[in-house]
């Protein structure tokens, strides 16, 4: 435990669970997609992550109890650390405990050799709140420039949300034809609620989000619907779609929609049509479940793929980052 002004800074403990959830939900409404939080979701999203450490879940407390909390992650070999959540007892980010926690994290990351701290793209799809943005500005976070290979130019780092109404959604004949062609080549496209028993005879090939799929399968939630791509007893890709209340439910609450993603296939299969079949089959499944809307968190490089299936932009969540080292602000003399 470390004393900083009127606050003690310490790591998360199991006994803090109920109070953390209560405080988180005060700050998260309209800001974080992880709202509302409950015990099961807290464990799934943070405590059971492979990279989780109590040292990366800091709490500030005073004489009246917990005042604020901050969750971050950092791989020892990585240049970049990620801030996953920040919450305060009053639900406001101008609380001094939030400032103290963030500065403490920067000091710890400097000791670990990290170069940058980035915010993760976890802002709520329905948020219009500016307080969080102003909080990061006050701590010298900026929107970084990144290279987008799709348009071959530097762009701001953003998280893009697309949505599509499902009233008129159908499986195009060309997609059904493509699926039949791939099946003659040995591919199969089953669909089932995530179940470890159904996949125990298959091995996962390395592809984007394959480790996430394996974790979801172990949870065995009936609200997670997994579409693996199977080739010769090997899972070479897949898509997950989620319903409200699922462990990975991080969509906008209050909408009658399902969440598409994550999705990934082996690099060697890109351009084969496997991704197109997965997209249409999984979205069609959401419609058969009774949902009127599907939402996809994506990025500028992949947005065009989803837009061809009728998805349209409805929100952009800005990601920000700052150097771990102290930022020197200099003003140029203007004649």
Describe this structure in words.
With 335 residues, the protein is α+β, with helices and mostly antiparallel strands. It has two domains: 2-141, Gcn5-related N-acetyltransferase (GNAT) (Aminopeptidase), CATH 3.40.630.30; 161-318, 3-Layer(aba) Sandwich (Aminopeptidase), CATH 3.40.630. Helix content is 27%, strand content 30%. It is built from nine helices and 18 strands. The strands form three sheets. Strands 9, 10, 11, 12, 13, 14, 15, 16 and 17 form a nine-stranded mixed β-sheet that branches. A seven-stranded mixed β-sheet has the order 1-2-3-4-5-6-18.
SSE topology:
Elements: E1 2-4, E2 7-11, H1 17-28, H2 39-47, E3 57-62, E4 65-73, E5 80-88, H3 96-112, E6 116-119, H4 131-138, E7 145-148, E8 153-156, E9 158-165, H5 173-184, E10 187-188, E11 192-193, H6 196-199, E12 203-204, H7 210-219, E13 224-231, E14 234-242, E15 257-265, H8 274-288, E16 293-298, H9 303-307, E17 312-318, E18 321-323
Parallel strand pairs: 5-6, 12-14, 15-16
Antiparallel strand pairs: 1-2, 2-3, 3-4, 4-5, 6-18, 7-8, 9-16, 9-17, 10-13, 11-13, 13-14, 14-15
Helix pairs in contact: 5-8
